[in-house]
Structure formats: structure tokens, C-alpha cells
Write a structure and sequence with these properties.
This protein is an alpha+beta fold and 89 residues long. 16% of the residues lie in helices and 47% in strands. It has a 4-stranded antiparallel sheet. Keywords: Signal.
Length: 89
């Protein structure tokens, strides 16, 4: 049971982390996410198919974003492209 908790915690930490693969003038990254929290609830909670409670305070919202960034001038000016992988249903 303890090993399962550690494994679950490791997966959650990985999912909440942005992972840049390399960075100099060009960088590529992957961001994984999966849980959204609405502290005061959400007025459109009936629209959340994966809500974990009846009022939509905590919603399971899995996803991935891929990004590519090219630094034009030092670390100040860059061009960035981001693509999310939305749920296909």
C-alpha cells in the first residue's frame, strides 16, 4: 500500500511539471496536467463530465501541451508555438 502511495505521488508530480527537453536558442517542452481546482465552485459544474464531487470543486481534467520556442534575441524576445491535445470524443 505504501509503495502504491509513493507511485501515485510520483505520477502526480510528473503530471504537474513542465519538462524542457533542451534549451539554447531553441527549446521544446512537454507539459502534462490532470487536476483542476475551483475554490469557490463553478456555476457551470453540470458541464464537467469528470468532476470528482457534486459541485465541481475538484475536476479531473487530463491533458498534454507541446511547445516549441525559438529565442530571437537573447532570452528576451522569442517566438513560441503551443499545441494542446484536447480530448477527442
Amino acid at each position: 500500500m505504501r509503495k502504491l502511495k509513493k507511485s501515485f505521488l510520483a505520477v502526480v508530480m510528473i503530471c504537474l511539471t513542465s519538462v524542457p527537453l533542451f534549451a539554447h536558442d531553441f527549446s521544446f517542452g512537454v507539459k502534462l496536467f490532470g487536476l483542476t481546482i475551483h475554490p469557490i465552485g463553478a456555476f457551470n459544474y453540470p458541464l464537467f463530465p469528470l468532476k470528482l464531487d457534486s459541485e465541481g470543486f475538484v475536476v479531473f481534467n487530463p491533458g498534454v501541451t507541446l511547445n516549441a520556442e525559438y529565442f530571437v534575441w537573447r532570452d528576451i524576445i522569442s517566438i513560441k508555438a503551443v499545441r494542446d491535445c484536447m480530448e477527442i470524443a
